[in-house]
Amino acid sequence: MTAVRTAATPPLRKPTNISLDTHLVEEAKRLGVNISRACEQGLASLIASEKARLWREENAEAIADSNRHVEASGLPLGEFRQF
Hints:
The protein has 83 residues and is an all-alpha fold. The chain has a domain of 45 residues. The chain is built from 3 helices and no strands.
């Protein structure tokens, strides 16, 4: 069973070796950037983007069907819209 993470539960961290551009590491250190957190944030952003892309790909047919239905029949309850 996977543990549910809440705001009160800090994430578990796994030590990981990665290779980064030397100039980026030097600049990050000079600016006081926490490299681990920056990498974590970047990875989280890429994961979210990829999940969204996969969702759109997996649901493309249903979205197209819905759009065709709206084009043919109009929006549900569209007659009650006030804008």
